[in-house]
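re: the backbone from monday

yeah here it is again, tokenized this time
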């Protein structure tokens, strides 16, 4: 009983939700949606709220405003109550998830557990019970000691990401960086990216650094992991451009490794799609899992243009055509088709490079006859 009363410090991150229950209906087609936010309650007492995400049933939080640190006990029950924001303050319940702190600690004893866990939403009162919520849960005792954030070797022009807190950067325990490359090594791509970063977007390769390696995603023909590691800012297939400090994930190296291992089944190399499942979309997924928010929107904007273009060609729908118009600015410098072809060539080069590297590793480790 003594152990149950011992106080400890818990870090809780609300990362995202999937398939939540609709409470609102918009437009002539009565599109179902909600404006979800979460209320964190520990032993019946509210300790904080996340920000509101508008018109979505698949919200992503994973930012500083959705991270909570509080004193609790092993016996405490933590509730994450999902609500639909309403302008009249009559917020509708959308269900909740909950856990007992001690149960989570028992489940995750050991050095390699992932801090992230999915929970099924259960009803509260008359609320429906649709969807899942992903939470990041860890004890403060697992957090590495603070270390001064220093730009990794080779970084130039370090910038702040959209969710980074400059005031806390100097005491980060596990800093996370985004490294942005111009795809390939052609000056044309570099010039186009420089002109259109904040309008149409560009042809970028993205990688996420945590600890001493950067991680990204590329295509392979085999059913194997497409996630690969490189030395920071040194990917040989692309031209390094700039870096962003995204925030502090507070995670020890073993838990970062566990998160990466959990991503492998969903990020196989033969599932790579230049438009819909690429290095930028992987980087976005990885930063959500790390709890430091999403990437700047311009990093993957051109892929969204391509996706809308694909939808238009396949469906010939007015809705998809309007989607392209929302993404594409009236800029004579941009030729979407040629940019996508440049990206295709870079992906093919990357696949060939990784295949040769794998063969060399296999030859080096093969036992002599």
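seq for it, each position gets an aa:
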């Amino acid at each position: 009983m003594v152990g149950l009363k011992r106080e400890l410090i818990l870090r809780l991150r609300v990362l995202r939700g999937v398939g939540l229950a609709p409470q609102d209906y918009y437009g002539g087609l009565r599109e179902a949606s909600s404006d979800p936010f979460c209320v964190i309650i520990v032993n019946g007492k509210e300790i904080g709220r996340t920000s509101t995400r508008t018109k979505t049933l698949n919200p992503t939080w994973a930012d500083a405003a959705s991270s909570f640190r509080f004193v609790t006990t092993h016996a405490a029950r933590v509730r994450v109550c999902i609500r639909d924001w309403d302008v009249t303050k009559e917020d509708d319940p959308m269900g909740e998830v909950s856990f007992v702190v001690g149960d989570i600690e028992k489940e995750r004893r050991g050095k390699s557990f992932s801090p992230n866990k999915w929970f099924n939403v259960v009803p509260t009162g008359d609320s429906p019970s649709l969807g899942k919520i992903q939470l990041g849960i860890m004890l403060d005792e697992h957090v590495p000691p603070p270390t001064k954030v220093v730009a990794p070797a080779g970084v130039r022009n370090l910038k702040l990401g959209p969710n980074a807190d400059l005031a806390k950067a100097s005491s980060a325990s596990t800093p996370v960086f985004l490294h942005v490359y111009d795809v390939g090594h052609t000056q044309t791509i570099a010039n186009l990216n420089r002109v259109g970063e904040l309008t149409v977007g560009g042809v970028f390769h993205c990688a996420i650094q945590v600890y001493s390696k950067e991680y990204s995603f590329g295509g392979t023909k085999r059913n194997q992991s497409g996630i690969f590691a490189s030395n920071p800012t040194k990917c040989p297939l692309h031209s390094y451009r700039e870096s962003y400090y995204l925030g502090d994930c507070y995670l020890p190296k073993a838990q970062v490794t566990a998160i990466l291992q959990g991503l492998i089944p969903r990020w196989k190399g033969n599932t790579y799609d230049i438009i819909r499942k690429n290095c930028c979309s992987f980087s976005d997924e990885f930063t959500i899992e790390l709890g430091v928010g999403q990437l700047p929107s311009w990093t993957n904007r051109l892929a969204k243009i391509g996706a809308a273009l694909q939808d238009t060609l396949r469906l010939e729908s007015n809705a998809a055509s309007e989607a392209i118009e929302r993404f594409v600015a009236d800029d004579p410098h941009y030729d979407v088709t040629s940019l996508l072809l440049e990206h295709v060539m870079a992906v093919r080069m990357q696949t060939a490079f990784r295949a040769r590297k794998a063969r060399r590793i296999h030859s080096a480790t093969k036992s002599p006859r």
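The mean pLDDT is 80. Residues 116 and 136 are 4 Å apart (CA to CA).
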